[in-house]
């Protein structure tokens, strides 16, 4: 995956709250409160995992986090467990990548969005579809269905990969 592609992934929402002052501190505080509620200690390694996710400009995989943090003493199992905790407290969400392995994104206070996933280069593009959201809501209402959550992940080829095939 090229650096250009990675830089584009999480830029779809330029006005979302992650860029605002205090956002990362709020996320860290919520993760700390999660640990306190579970009578667990917030370790330095877990802080490093969270910081890596907060600093990322793309959807990151467990192996990427592990490789980046291994020199700082963070093990693979610690990364796995840290990601699980962050999911449990609803600070991050998992996205399926083109190779079927999960990637992660910080989701706290981010607007709902879906993903376009390139099966060639692995780019994950965020997208919002207000029209589809309205259709889903109407269908659920008409069927008396109470939706809790949903996720759309569309797999295909991005424009750059289509151009390479020509």
Brief sketch in words of this structure:
With 166 residues, the protein is α+β, with helices and mostly antiparallel strands. It is 45% helix and 15% strand. It has a single domain (3-165), classed as Arc Repressor Mutant, subunit A, CATH 1.10.10.
The overall average pLDDT, rounded, is 86
Strand proportion = 15-25%
What is the name of the CATH class?
Mainly Alpha
Question: Helix and strand succession?
Answer: HHHEHHEEEEHEH
Count of DSSP helices? 7
Number of strands: 6
CATH homologous group name: Winged helix-like DNA-binding domain superfamily/Winged helix DNA-binding domain
Distance between the termini: 19 Å
- Name the shape in a single word: globular
Provide the number of structural domains: 1
Provide structural commentary.
The longest helix is centred in the first third of the chain and has 15 residues, at 23-37. The chain starts with a helix and ends with a helix. The chain is built from seven helices and six strands; from the N terminus they run H-H-H-E-H-H-E-E-E-E-H-E-H. The chain has helices at residues 3-8, 23-37, 44-55, 62-69, 76-88, 130-143, 159-165; strands at 60-61, 92-96, 102-106, 114-118, 124-127, 153-156. Helix 3 (44-55) packs across helix 5 and helix 4 (62-69) crosses helix 5 (76-88).
Secondary-structure map:
Layout: H1 3-8, H2 23-37, H3 44-55, E1 60-61, H4 62-69, H5 76-88, E2 92-96, E3 102-106, E4 114-118, E5 124-127, H6 130-143, E6 153-156, H7 159-165
Parallel strand pairs: 4-6
Antiparallel strand pairs: 1-3, 2-3, 4-5
Helix pairs in contact: 3-5, 4-5
